[in-house]
Specification:
Length: 366
């Protein structure tokens, strides 16, 4: 799925957004940066923000960066400002306020239509969590999409922390209409043997267009033989930790599955990193956003755990509707229209950067 390269991505524990005051370098943050030979997203982030975090830069340049493992010299990247805005652009708050004002001024239909019932869960900040403004940026994007591109649907949002029940029970039984947010495989790709999980998502659910792409890294001990693996095949025979309930789809697409690796499935990211530290697992594989948060909470540094600099995956998150829902296609079409308009207006990026700033401020305050 992704070209393998020996171009070093960087030692990256990556990812809570380092956009809060005092963490950015005046020389590079809030500027456009031209990639030089040997640059990586992580090394650029270290210089600009004082951290190896690169997910914010990836978000801001998603239209031109297709593989975070491979940057071409001469590529011009927009490095977000401290408040999450782009160089020479409006702040996230200004973009959001302008779009809200525009929606309030548009004429709405007087016809009654029942609220669309959205469900998500806690414990996945900054993506979804009741403690964050609007329930996290994936929840904010979902609800906002229902009020853009001519949509004006009422909605309700519920947090059900039993994530597995969303797709196995709540959507199939019609208790909710849309679940936020899930890894969605490329259902046109039959080059590998589909797992039950992939088959279920491709055959039983309608999915919106991709909403957000997450980078998932492999975290090992600095002295591990896997730290310099340059292909996914080199992880065959390893013990890999990924939390219970987290999708394996991105790994399966790369040929990594339960037939050629041993998979540990604890409940938390902390337990996964502990497994690597105590030798129970060779590597932990999950989102760079969560990895950086968890390492910070555990007091770990790059001297304790490192991200493999050559191998990572991308996972597209989407909103899912069960195919038995009589209005399922309509809901997906509405949200897709809203999502497309939000990307064009800049509101999509503004909501993400605003929530990441809020989340990072909380992390720094603790």
């Amino acid at each position: 799925m992704f070209k393998q390269t020996a171009k070093k991505l960087a030692i990256a524990t990556t990812a809570t957004v380092a956009l809060s005051a005092g963490m950015a370098s005046a020389q590079q943050a809030c500027t456009n940066y031209t990639v030089s030979d040997g640059d990586t997203l992580a090394t650029i982030a270290i210089t600009a923000y004082g951290t190896s975090n690169y997910q914010p830069i990836f978000n801001a340049n998603r239209n031109i960066v297709t593989n975070p493992n491979d940057l071409d010299p001469g590529l011009v990247l927009a490095l977000p400002c401290e408040d999450g805005s782009l160089p020479d652009g409006r702040s996230a708050q200004e973009v959001i306020a302008a779009e809200e004002s525009r929606f309030e001024s548009t004429r709405r239909s007087n016809a009654y239509e029942p609220p669309i019932r959205l469900v998500t869960g806690n414990g996945w900040a900054p993506f979804t969590d009741e403690s964050l403004n609007g329930g996290g940026f994936m929840t904010r994007i979902a609800t906002t999409s229902l009020h853009r591109a001519g949509n004006s649907r009422d909605y309700s949002v519920s947090f059900v922390d039993d994530w597995g029940a969303h797709l196995s029970t709540l959507l199939p039984l019609g208790a909710f209409d849309v679940s936020i947010a899930w890894t969605m495989p490329d259902c046109t790709n039959r080059s590998y043997e589909w797992s039950e999980e992939t088959t279920t998502r491709c055959t039983q659910f309608y999915a919106t267009v991709p909403v957000y792409d997450t980078v998932r890294g492999f975290y090992t001990l600095p002295e591990s033989s896997y730290v310099n693996a340059t292909t996914f095949a080199e992880f065959e025979g390893a013990t890999v930790c990924r939390m219970d309930g987290w999708s394996m789809i991105d790994l399966e697409e790369q040929g990594i599955n339960v037939s050629n690796v041993t998979v540990l499935r604890p409940k938390t990211a902390r337990e996964c990193l502990d497994a690597v530290l105590n030798g129970t697992a060779d590597a932990a594989s999950f989102e760079v956003q969560l990895a950086a948060d968890t390492m910070s909470e555990m007091g770990l540094t790059q001297n304790d755990l490192v991200e493999n600099p050559f191998v990572s995956t991308l996972s597209s998150l989407a909103f899912l509707v069960h195919r038995t829902n009589p209005f399922g296609r309509q809901y997906v079409a509405m949200m897709n229209k809203g999502l497309n308009e939000m990307r064009e207006s800049g509101e999509w990026y503004a909501i993400i950067s605003d929530t990441l700033r809020e989340h990072n401020d909380r992390m720094n305050a603790n």
